[in-house]
Structure formats: structure tokens, C-alpha cells
Amino acid sequence: MIATDINIKQPNEKEYAQVLQLVEEFWLDNINMRQEQFTIISDNGKVIAFARMKEYPDALELGTLGVAKELRGNGYGSKLVSHLISLAQRDVYVVTTLFKFNANLGFVLVNEYPESIRKKIDICAKDFHVEEPYFVMKWEKKGN
């Protein structure tokens, strides 16, 4: 099923409850989550995709990104990330196992990054350990 009436927006309380459920189901970073950090793609109140922008004093991080399993491969994740980075006022970092997905959206692998991102890598390695390696990637805001 492909969504027909998609809407990119901030989630309302009912939609945020769906995001919380999906974050748990997909075993994503749920640390210090707040509703206002999230942007979603919805179709008539059903959350299709979601992502969070976390603001740190030294960095802006894109994370906690997911797409409903039955709708993966239809471009919703890319559409949402492209929307979010177009709004970014500074460079955006992502700690990810999805190297190719992020590279296709303009993120590049980096070896140097702010302290908050280093802490995120430590959290991922400890609390969200997966078989795939984590990468730190950066989308550079043009005109900085």
C-alpha cells in the first residue's frame, strides 16, 4: 500500500504515541525524546515515517529515523530527511548504520566531529549495539 495523502508535519499527541510505539518496535534511540523534536510523514493520521532533530550546543543531529515496515522502499525516508536538512540552519550530523542511504542524501563520512556526537557513538555502542558498524556522517550547510 502506498500512501495517497501524505503530509510532512510535527506530530500531534495521537501521532506522537504512534512514533513512541515505532521507536520501541524498531529499537531506536529513545533517550530524552520530546514531541517537538520530531517531524513525521503521515497519511490520514497514520504515521508513515518519522525523524528527530536533536539540538546540542555544539551540533545538530538527525536521528531516530524510521519508516513503517510495510511502506519501506517508497522514498518516504529520503523525502523526510531531505525536508529536514533543507530547514537546517547549520551542519547536520548523523550516527548511522545506513551508510549508503545517508550518502545518497548528501552526507559524507567524517572522522572529526563535535563532543556531543562522540557521546552519541558511545551510547549507540553500549545501549543500541548492532552487528553493523556505526558511521558518523555530516551534511554540510552551504554558505556557512
The fraction of residues assigned to DSSP E strands is: 25-35%
Number of domains: 1
CATH structural architecture:
3-Layer(aba) Sandwich
Low-confidence stretches: none
User: By CATH's scheme, which homologous superfamily applies?
Assistant: Gcn5-related N-acetyltransferase (GNAT)
Provide the succession of SSEs: EHEEEHEHEHE
CATH-assigned fold name? Aminopeptidase
Work out the number of β strands. 7
Radius of gyration, rounded? Answer: 15 Å
Content-based structural category: alpha+beta
Quaternary state of this entry equals single chain
Our measurement of the CA-to-CA distance between the termini, rounded to an integer number of angstroms, reads 41 Å
On the 0 to 100 scale, the average pLDDT is 93
The major pleated sheet works out as:
4 strands, antiparallel
- Would you state the CATH class? Alpha Beta
- Which term fits the overall shape? globular
The helix fraction, in percent, is 25-40%
